[in-house]
Design brief:
- It catalyses: L-methionyl-[protein] + [thioredoxin]-disulfide + H2O = L-methionyl-(R)-S-oxide-[protein] + [thioredoxin]-dithiol.
- By secondary structure, this protein is mainly β.
- The protein has one domain: Beta Complex (Metal Binding Protein, Guanine Nucleotide Exchange Factor, Chain A), CATH 2.170.150.20.
- The protein is built from two helices and nine strands.
- A six-stranded antiparallel beta sheet has the order 3-4-8-7-6-5, with no helix packed on it. Strands 2-1-9 form a three-stranded antiparallel beta sheet, with no helix packed on it.
- It is globular and about 40 Å long.
Amino acid sequence: MEPIVGATPKVVKSDQEWKQHLDPYEYSVLRNGATEPAYTGEYTETKTTGVYECRACGTELFRSDEKFESHCGWPSFFDPKDSDAVLLREDRSLGMVRVEVLCATCHSHLGHVFEGEGYDTPTDQRYCINSIALRLIPAE
């Protein structure tokens, strides 16, 4: 994974340590930027109230009240829990220009953010996040 210019992760592990901490599928998405197939993730249709944290490091990223139905095949949020929770960087892979979303704490790949698609949300943004990159902590 390429380093992010001007940002140092708070959680730093070697590739070997990440491989011991994450299963192979989690590692491929979180550390190598892979994407889970659409409509296969455990949180795509979830309506449970709670907080979604980074599966790699446990940082709180999104709240369930920021989640919305976008019908894109991945969990969608209109805003992160805190603006400092995620980092954004240009992604020119696969012959397109997108904005990649990473965990600000460990710099793991979460998904992408899209703007101006006409969603009826307060931000007109869609944080399209891989379920495998998240862990839902239900509200008590």
